[in-house]
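F.,

This is the one I mentioned.
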């Protein structure tokens, strides 16, 4: 059993992250969910992808609302969705 686990651990990180994401999207998942599902199989690449996404315009709007109004991020996101529907639509697209 340890050999099988070692083989899995050795092989999984070598997988092409883009191919893993595409395979998840083929199952019907959105690009964002597909990236989240593929992340454990290639964490080094996934970390760079997620760190780039953290600086999207909608995130900045949410952060600004949360800071200015001293509210939680979830409440700020609800308000930002109403205030900036175009940015929210782009955010959802991934």
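My design for it:
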């Amino acid at each position: 059993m340890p050999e099988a686990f070692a083989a899995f651990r050795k092989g999984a990180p070598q997988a092409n992250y883009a191919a893993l994401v595409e395979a998840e999207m083929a199952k019907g998942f959105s690009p964002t969910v597909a990236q989240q599902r593929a992340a454990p199989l290639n964490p080094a690449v996934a970390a760079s992808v997620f760190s780039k996404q953290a600086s999207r315009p909608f995130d900045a709007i949410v952060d600004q609302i949360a800071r200015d109004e001293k509210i939680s991020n979830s409440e700020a996101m609800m308000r930002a969705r109403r205030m900036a529907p175009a940015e929210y639509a782009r955010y959802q697209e991934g």
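The chain has two domains: 2-45, 57-93.

Talk soon.
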